[in-house]
Amino acid sequence: MQQNKSITEFIFLGLTRDPMKQKMVFIFVLFFYTGTLVGNLLIIVTIKFSRTLGTPMYFFLFYLSFADTCFSTSITPRLIVDAISEKKVISYNECMMQVFALHLFGAMEVFVLMIMAFDRYVAICKPLHYMTIMRRQVCTILIIICWIFSFIHSTTQIALTLKLPFCGPNMIDHYCCDLQPLLKLACMDTYVINLQLVANSGAICVSGFVLLMISYFIILHSLRNHSAEGRRKALSTCTSHIFVVILFFGPTIFIYTRPPTTFFIDKMVAVFYTIATPFLNPLIYTLRNTEVKNAMKKLWSIKITSDIK
């Protein structure tokens, strides 16, 4: 990646500069990242090889887990290493790549969550037409569209970032590269670029959250016409989805929809959507989902039995 900036590397200030707290951050983040990898990879492998999880909901859950894994991997491993490093240095090119990956997989998660809400709407409100509307070809096209829009979004973000001239200082008051903390280091008036950031990332976050809340309100309102068992099952699914939506969109809206000001809690808020959400998603979608748990037990019991033989 070609660059004509005077700054060739950045230094992260991280979550804390206290040596004892840095060790706690290392343990905390390592635990969460390990849980994220194990949980999401279990879901990916189970859906891939299970014959009972062939419905569109699990097709989309596969890509949500994939996006979670990549999203977390674009940030967390460096944070783990930096937590035990004296100098938290990242090159200019690596920083730009991190911005691109962060927004590519973050946007992918947003769009997949929206498709999952649409899938639940069709399943609950249009059950007789569900298999016609959500046939395999349609699901594949929807995922391709998600990837295209995610790529467009991340390309826009990296284009905005590459416009910024950096001439010092080079210390990023964060634990990862993102447009907001980089704006503070730019040797130019960043007001217009910040407006573009809000118009892009902020609009995606807010519109995605509003559309999801409206769709789930319609779904929950339509449940009054269902049987008690149908309401219970649909409520269980929708409740877990709503929890994920609030946990992910709340912090992102706080970060990406405001003027270029910095608050002391910004880094802690970012922890929720960069580290906590990818960790909690597989727990929410498996612990509250009997079909996934049964498929996991069956798949891994077959695997263990075959290994013994």
TrEMBL record:
The chain crosses the membrane at residues 24-45, 57-80, 100-118, 138-160, 198-223, 235-256, 268-287. The keyword Transmembrane helix applies. It is a multi-pass membrane protein. GO terms for cellular component: plasma membrane. Its main location: membrane. InterPro entries: GPCR_Rhodpsn, GPCR_Rhodpsn_7TM, Olfact_rcpt, Olfactory_Receptors. It is found in: Cell membrane. GO terms for molecular function: G protein-coupled receptor activity; olfactory receptor activity. Residues 39-285 form the G-protein coupled receptors family 1 profile domain. SUPFAM superfamilies: Family A G protein-coupled receptor-like (SSF81321). Keywords: Cell membrane, G-protein coupled receptor, Membrane, Olfaction, Receptor, Sensory transduction, Transducer, Transmembrane, Transmembrane helix. Belongs to the G-protein coupled receptor 1 family. This is Olfactory receptor.
